[in-house]
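Notebook entry, structure prediction.
Reason for the run: the old model in the group folder had no record of what sequence produced it. Starting over properly, with the input documented here first.
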Amino acid sequence: MTIRGKVIKHRVLPPATCLMPLPVVLATCRSAAGKDNIITIAWTGVVCSDPPMISIAVRPSRFSHELLAQNGDFVANLPSAGTMVHADLCGTLSGRDRDKFAEAGWTPIGASQVNAAIIKECPVALECRTRKKLSLGSHDLFLAEVLAVQAHEELLDANGRLDIEAIEPLAFCPNCKGVGQYWSLKEALGHYGVSKEHHKRV
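New structure, fully documented this time:
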């Protein structure tokens, strides 16, 4: 195959999680005793529109998995690219013996619908309640309904829609140059349905 004058060859690689980029989520959860924790997750995604549902995948060995088993509520906090170092820190420490809120400098505030903390500094927070857990292998998948969304007011336009450029979302590429890498996303290239407009012109 030739694309733009270059010959394209495919190579078969071993099976791997090569979907990229992925959103970085700081999932906050709370134990039965009221201890708050944060886990940095990229194994996440939208699974249903009505009702709105997302998923997070967590290794059973992680402290947050234990908390999610006790209390299925969690908040999917979306960090901005500027807080990458703090987000990474929350994925490298164990909440069993460390206070990740204190170590990362995050501020916990109360959620409106779920029993979990929101990270005040994150521009968007999805309040979620687990509806089902699936054991898949290395990870367990928590399927959760989004009960509420909180966002910084200055990031909303007059119609209440999020300004993605202002948020500058943080993304993760799991198999980039042999190591997982964080990337920033902020440039819009088009909108849904733009192909129809293009075909009308040609």
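Summary: The chain has a mean pLDDT of 91.
The old model has been moved to the deprecated folder.
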